[in-house]
Amino acid sequence: MKTIKGPAIFLAQFADDTAPYNSLDGLCGWAAKMGYKAVQIPSWDKRCIDLALAATSDQYISELQETVQSHGLEISELSTHLQGQLVAVHPAYDSMFDAFAPADKQNNSKARTVWAVDQVQKAAVVSRKLGIDRMASFSGALLWPTMYPWPQRPAGLVETGFSELAARWAPILKVAADQGVDICYEIHPGEDLHDGITFEMFLEATGHHEQVKMLYDPSHLLLQQMDYLTYIDHYHDFIKMFHVKDAEYLPNGKSGVYGGYQSWIDRPGRFRSLGDGQVDFKQIFSKLSTYDFDGWAVLEWECCIKSPEQGAREGAPFISDCIIEVTEKAFDDFAGAESDEAKNRKILGLDQ
Length: 352
Prior knowledge:
This protein is α/β, with parallel strands linked by helices. The chain is built from 13 helices and 10 strands. The chain has a single domain (5-347), classed as TIM Barrel. The strands form 2 sheets. It has an 8-stranded parallel beta barrel with strand order 1-2-3-4-5-6-7-10, surrounded by 5 helices. It has a two-stranded antiparallel sheet with strand order 8-9.
């Protein structure tokens, strides 16, 4: 077994235009003071990283690492959630997702997709330069508007959708394979990969590509009313990244898992800061440790009630308390004895 690394923190929800949150140096100093040991960097945010420069400049890579290490931190992983989203966008969401792309790629879905593919490829290259063998992403979605089967989906629609999704990711996965970097898709509503079954569909469509892995975030599974613990039993071989995020589902007589178009505060299912929701993190850390998860436990803060500053302050000790220092000896070793084949055969009555 391996001891999970942590605590780490995903910087995406904290970066803004005021100090100390407006630079990687400032964010790292802030995170270190709260007890975090690593940062997960949103690769689309130039306050944190210039992805294009990182892909071509070893000097910039060194400067980036020095900035993080000067605060006693590591880079846990890079995230390409927003760029991955743009690899596949259904026309129904075209204008809403345009904001994720540069101005010169907006109102041009084909150019936007080409840009997104290049961005995720660059992130794989940069991950390897940083000595990191995994990165996070969203899959994007072509099928999500047909998630509920009404009107009835035409025969073959799902297969066509996953075939096209796999084709769009194929050049990215090739670069990832060349770099020895796994792409960990966050299983997330709104993505075509939103549960275990859809992950399996995508995996099959890619020909069971070796670089197709998973980012486990129990909050998204709880809000779908899935068994997020048994999920680990099914998919532990694919889980290479872990977002520690809490959630709660409070059923009522007016709306359910779809949320009734309400704001997060009014939805039955909503994200909460660590310890304020219903996720059983003690059991999650136990299962992941049992299955030799060797990655980072990364706080992703999203809460409709608590401030991000308080959520971050409370997150580091919460994760630290959950991390299990795995044992290297059995609890009953004191009663053991040296191996003796002759004695073992005698106990079993094999030489009588």
